[in-house]
Amino acid sequence: MHRKIFIEQLKRSRKTVVYFWLLLIAATFFVTSMNLYRNSICNLQTSESTFSTLAVTELYGEVDRYGELVERNSEEHIGYQPVGVRGYDISKIIDSEAVRSYDLRTQYGAYIEECPAMFYAPQVNSDGTDIPQWFMRSNNIIRFQIQAKEPLELKYHYDPNNTKEYHFGLNVLDEAAGCFEYPEKMFYSDLGFKPEEWEAHAQDIKAFNQSEDTNCLILYPGVEYVAIIEYHGYWLWNEEGTLEYTTTSDGYETTFDLVVPIQDYRNIQLTYDGGREGMEYEVGDTPFPIQRWEDVQNDPKLKAYFEDLWQDIHVQQYTHNVVATNDVTSVPTFHLGNTALCEGRLITEEEYESGAKVCLISKEVAQNQQWKIGDKLNMKLFESDYIPNAPFVPDEAIYDAEKTPFVDEGEYEIVGIYESYPSAGNTELAPDTLELSSFTIFVPTNSIAKPREQKDVMVHGSTFSVKIKNGSVEDFVQDMEANGVTTGGKGEYTPKFTFYDQGYSAVKSSLLSMNNTAKLLLLLSSILLLIICVLVAYFFWQNQRQTVGIFRLLGGTKKQAVSAVLLCAMVLTILGSAAGGISGYGLAYIVGNGIMQENIEEIEMDMSQENDLSALTEQESDIRVAADPLVTLQACGALLLCPVFLLGFVSADINKEPRELLPKNK
Fold first, then answer.
1. What pTM was estimated for this model as a whole?
2. How many CB atoms are closer than 10 A to CB 608?
3. Degrees (nearest 5) of the Cα angle 329, 333, 335?
4. What residues does each domain of the chain span?
5. What is the pLDDT of residues 366-379, one digit of tens each?
6. 613 burial class (0-12, 13-18, 19+ CB within 10 angstroms)?
């Protein structure tokens, strides 16, 4: 009953409205500044985790055409150039305190049964629709007979302007790949040999022809032959799941060109002197790529060769490219935004660490193979050193049972599909550094039972990159100089780094500016809140002293008086903080997002010239101002200082005689 007296007095006092508005203003200002400050901290943390800085390593040296160190101006010397180096010691680089993580990627081939490694090259109809057509990615071996009554002569033609064409009937009895249905006719333009190669096989040609003729190959009716032919197309999937040969809209047909199988390259070397498309290879002492089947069966050595090659070619046709990585976002093209996820998800950090059997595939491979998220691929892996954009067998790992046995097998689940866009960045080792074969399948390094040793891995821009702490480029460079990494010495490779900042530096400056503004606002609002709480508490008590004195003269106790005054103060504080919290919540959202939008536009302008916008675009929804209910509630709770201060003023006067609490002139 005694509390009702104080509540009624509170309602009648005009000063109550003033106290309410003061508390509302203090709460509004403090809630707004608290939300702005909290969001500025969150945005800095978000930008730190969203953006990353990549250092791509290129190893320079005075080298020969194969990238090996030589004396400057020596006969083998071709210049000071960036090269790939096998087994380079990366410890001095990754030990820098500025390095957050590193990724040394390794290549494998993966045999996936019943999934031929084809590439898709559709023809376009007059109406703009695609005609689906596939090409082989590997050469093949066929056993066949010609459909003719008279011997057929295939003359050698090595004239790029030659338009003469031969068509001959063909009955394919068997083929190594096991997935192709060849046509009854083959198109022939030349045998795929250079003049000097043709001359080198003169005795082979005589034996094959069973005559002294060396200017052509003579095929006889009724005789079975085995031939190694070049990869070709065009193919379509039929209802039986076999690739069936088809002609193009202009009538172009598949070719019959003999080749030396890639398994017979005795030596394949990457060259750096602008040689034949960057590659040099030496052919071993191998049999002529077309033989009579009877001769093969009667010669144990020849028979063993073709049987081994038959198996190798079969695996080769089902071989897909696999790259083992510890962080796919460290791959330069992913980091720059030229390659991005279009379906599913990325491999998680936990999956990298645990070696989970998961993988990422390209959109092209998904279309070619009709694979989808959740499918599981049973892959048999073998070690490989395939090099992107090699001139032979496009970007495919080379399988040879004797040289590259299977080292692991597992069932990998597809968790993500990525898509590549035109490259926007550059390094001195481009395009290999920034290009990515569309046939690449990414798997966690730890998912392979026996990872490759570092000494066997080639280190260059497309295989090795480090993520450094944001804003630490200068620290990283200083560490490299201090450790003698970039100073180089005679007989050593010198690493040079290309840094790719996704835009953290541009974002950080704007976010720090907002953070500093939020700090100032928080300081001012805190001072205002403190002053208002003290003033409201003081004047509220002065307004309540007379009521307390009268109440005690009428028999009320001190405890009853204090509890009633505190109740009134609490009601007033709660109403003021609630109203201020609501208005501050809305004001923080409206004003804060207005400021943030201006910052985002400024960031986009700053980044559009030199940085990639993909990281900002993907995470822009997280880099914003959003009023937090919990922060708002905590900020409103700060107004409870008012009752606390009030209790202090009450404590100083409550023990006085009741008459002393009344105004002295009354």
1. 0.75
2. 12
3. 40
4. 2-51+505-661, 53-114+319-501, 118-317
5. 988 889 999 999 99
6. middle
